[in-house]
Design goal:
By secondary structure, the protein is α+β, with helices and mostly antiparallel strands. The chain is built from 13 helices and 16 strands.
Length: 382
């Protein structure tokens, strides 16, 4: 593996646990990237004041979508209730002559593995394929394994009995995809197929208090506008709530658990590289067409540790009050001071630190680690 992670793995001849911590400070213009059930930007109270917030679920989804197209060789996963359809399609792709049997084979095999299947509640037509009662997360390779096993027993007198002889649960409990290995898999039944997530992602929070605002808008009816006799006025009116903030984002990867989930050091390296790049550069896309709010981080710090993960949100427990220089510049200064003091007071030192910044106000991160370009951050980590 790469020098930074390898250096963290072996200290004085002892094998150590390895964690990759990712810290991001990023400024968002007026936007609403992650909404609550009322359509307002999500918030959280921290340090006694309300902050802008983006949920960890939304951030993980954006990260996964960002690296999904970059994963090759079947190292990606599919999250769906329509697992019967996926397995049946894979059977037909491999053996078109089994088209008429594919659905029955798929349903039989998935039930043997332990998945509970039923007709969708909204449509109980006989033509509708059965679905899982919950979202099932399977890798492309696992779907292929199930299809191959079902094809191998299709001609047996009792294919169900023959399939059970193949230890069917093992078909979906090996060859985990990178996203399953990183984000985990929770299966209500059978829970033996659960996979512990190798990464943890915090909710992003603003470094200072948030002030939510409202955009009042009107939409013109083009046809009425052309007709002089039509009633005047807007065809539609409404409001969109928005906010702006500099946010602190944090995630950590347990490299040992990732290796346990994937079983291949080369794939582990690729997974770390993909996650670092995608986490740093992706963002939830709520109302993005309205606000065009995609920005780059002001500053990023990646630390490889062999002690424990450390979320540094405590740097902003005392909310920053924006002055002439806004939030980002004092946030960078505050973070650098907090991280440096944490090292001095605790004696906990990262094995390797990599820093990058995209604006002069982020240059203070140069005190925390070796500078790398943003585009090289993932590959430099491994």
């Amino acid at each position: 593996r790469g020098a930074a992670i390898k250096q963290a793995s072996f200290v004085k001849g002892k094998t150590m646990s390895v964690f990759v911590d990712i810290h991001v400070l990023q400024t968002l213009p007026p936007s609403n990237p992650n909404r609550d059930d009322t359509g307002a930007p999500k918030t959280a109270t921290f340090g006694g004041v309300q902050r802008m917030r983006m949920s960890s679920q939304a951030i993980k989804r954006a990260t996964r979508e960002d690296f999904e197209g970059k994963i090759a060789d079947g190292n990606y996963g599919v999250r769906t209730k329509k697992i019967v359809e996926l397995v049946a399609r894979s059977i037909v792709d491999k053996r078109p002559d089994l088209d008429s049997q594919s659905v029955d084979l798929a349903e039989m095999g998935l039930k043997a593995i332990g998945f509970k299947l039923a007709k969708p509640n909204k449509n109980k037509s006989d033509k509708e394929l059965e679905e899982a009662g919950f979202l099932v997360f399977l890798s492309a390779k696992q779907i292929e394994h199930v299809a191959d096993a079902l094809i191998s027993v299709a001609a047996e007198g009792d294919p169900a009995a023959a399939f059970k002889e193949l230890k069917p649960r093992s078909l979906v409990n090996t060859d985990h995809s990178i996203d399953i290995a990183l984000f985990g898999r929770m299966v209500a039944e059978p829970n033996a197929l659960n996979v512990d997530a190798a990464c943890q992602v915090s909710h992003a929070i603003g470094v200072g208090a948030v002030e939510r605002e409202y955009d009042y808008y009107t939409a013109v009816d083009d046809e009425k506008k052309r007709n002089d006799e039509a009633d005047e006025g807007a065809g539609m009116i409404g409001t969109i709530e928005f906010a702006s903030a500099t946010v602190y984002r944090y995630a950590t990867i347990n490299v040992d658990m990732l290796r346990e989930n994937l079983g291949d050091d080369a794939v582990v390296d690729r997974a770390v590289e993909l996650f670092v790049d995608s986490f740093v550069r992706s963002m939830p896309t709520g109302k993005v067409t309205t606000f065009a709010n995609r920005t780059l981080p002001d500053a990023v710090l990646v630390q490889v540790r062999n002690d424990q993960p450390i979320n540094m949100a405590g740097a902003f427990e005392d909310p920053i009050v924006a002055g002439q220089h806004g939030f980002a510049e004092p946030a960078v200064k505050r973070f650098v001071e907090f991280e440096s003091m944490l090292r001095d007071l605790t004696g906990l030192e990262p094995v390797a630190s990599l820093a990058t910044w995209t604006t002069p106000r982020g240059e203070g991160f140069s005190a925390l680690g070796a500078q790398v370009r943003l585009v090289d951050l993932g590959s430099a980590t491994v």
